[in-house]
Amino acid sequence: MVSCAKCGHPNLPSSTTCSKCGAPLPTAVAPAGPPIIDSVDEYARQVAAREAIRKRNKMIVAAIAAVVVIALGYLQVKERNRKAAAQEKLNYAEKFVELEKRETGAFWNCVMASEVDVGMFQKAEQFQQRIESAYFTQQKTFSDYLTTECVPKIERARQAFGGLRDAPAELAGPIDKYRETLPKLQSGLEDYAENIKKRGGVKDVDQLIQETGNAWHSTPDPTPEAVAFEKFLYCAVPGLAKLKDAQVLLEFLRDQCYSKDPVAFMDKVRADCGGLLNVADKEAKVNPKSVPTWKTTHKQLFEEEARQLQAWESCGKRSRKGKKKEELESFLLTVNEYMAARAGVANAARGIQEAAK
Predict the structure, then answer these.
(1) Distance between CA 68 and CA 268 in Å, rounded?
(2) What is the pLDDT of residue 30?
(3) Following DSSP, what letter does each residue of 220-264 receive, concatenated?
(4) Which of 44, 95, 273, 341 could form a disulfide with 178 if both were Cys (CB 3.0 to 4.6 A apart)?
(5) Which residues are CB-contacts of 230 (< 8 A; sequence separation ≥ 6)?
(6) Which is more confidently placed, 125 or 262?
(7) Is 7 helix (H, G, I), strand (E, B) or coil?
(8) What pLDDT score does 49 carry?
(9) Contact indicator for 175, 96 with CB cutoff of 8 Å
(10) In sequence order, which residues have a C-beta less than 8 Å from that of residue 215 and are 6 or more positions away?
(11) Residue 205: what pLDDT?
(12) Radius of gyration (Cα) for the chain, nearest Å?
């Protein structure tokens, strides 16, 4: 309500004059509003300030965009360089593979007398089987063949890998291990070539055991071959004279050749007693009195089935089989090292390839 200043009568706020005395009432003051810009310069200043803020924001956005572009470019360059470096390492690994296939592969083709992919082999026994198969194709000359044909190839492989330098860090260790196996392969093969030279002599002794043994079993009278076999028996079987019968002899041979080491037993028999089997004149006459043990030995050990000869043959075969493994033993040990080193290089190359993805 608005009170009249003249008479004090209360009036409505919208009244302009007092409803009682007619005197004018005071006009209500409107609430204060925003200040009115009454200067052109002030307006221009505000417009310029807004424009400056807009330009600054635009520059910030541009700067951020530039940083992003540079960062992306840097990452792209870095990625290209990483892949290029990985490819260079893989190229080196490929160089190793080509060298291995050409040089070491030629060595294996020679040793096995046929083209082979050793990457298909899983264990050393597979190498042994293939080498022994090659041996049977040229038994009399295989030792010389290995020495004159195959050893030079592993020597050339050693020289080739000796010139393979500046390997990437990931490949350097595995390649060094691979390189270290090559002279061992050469040494092992040379040992094997020397060992197989004796095979002919071993077979000759085993054959003489059968030939003279047949003579001993086929006649009641002493002949040069039969006497040679008896001398062999007394040398090969300790305490032969005390054996009860042929069955005890068979049990002795079974123990030596099946329960114990047939290689050691037959090696000793061949070395110490094999020379007694050589007969200079098979047609010569033998004075029975020169062989005082003849009748006793025949009575003690003779049997029509000649099972003793079967036992000697079986023992000889087991011995020769075991000896083959011994002859290749040092070589096969190195083959295992070689295969492990070869796999190590392949694994390192795969690691580089995976890291490059």
Answers:
(1) 85
(2) 47
(3) SS--HHHHHHHHHHHHHSTTGGG--SHHHHHHHHHIIIIIS-HHH
(4) 341
(5) 216, 222, 291, 293, 294, 297
(6) 262
(7) coil
(8) 78
(9) yes
(10) 223, 225, 226, 229
(11) 95
(12) 52
Instruction: Name the helix (H) or strand (E) containing 3.
Output: strand 2-3
Distances (CA, A) of 87 to 151, 167, 348, 352: 35, 13, 13, 9
**Where in the chain are the domains?**
88-357
Reported pTM: 0.66
Angle (deg, nearest 10), helices 246-254 and 294-301? 70
As a residue count, the chain comes to 357
Question: What is the tens place of the pLDDT at every residue in 339-355?
Answer: 999 999 999 999 888 88
Residue 134's φ and ψ, nearest 5 degrees, are -65, -40
Residue 202 makes CB contacts below 8 A (sequence gap 6+) with: 270, 320, 323
Token duo for residue 328: 């290749």
Of the chain, the end-to-end C-alpha distance in Å amounts to 87
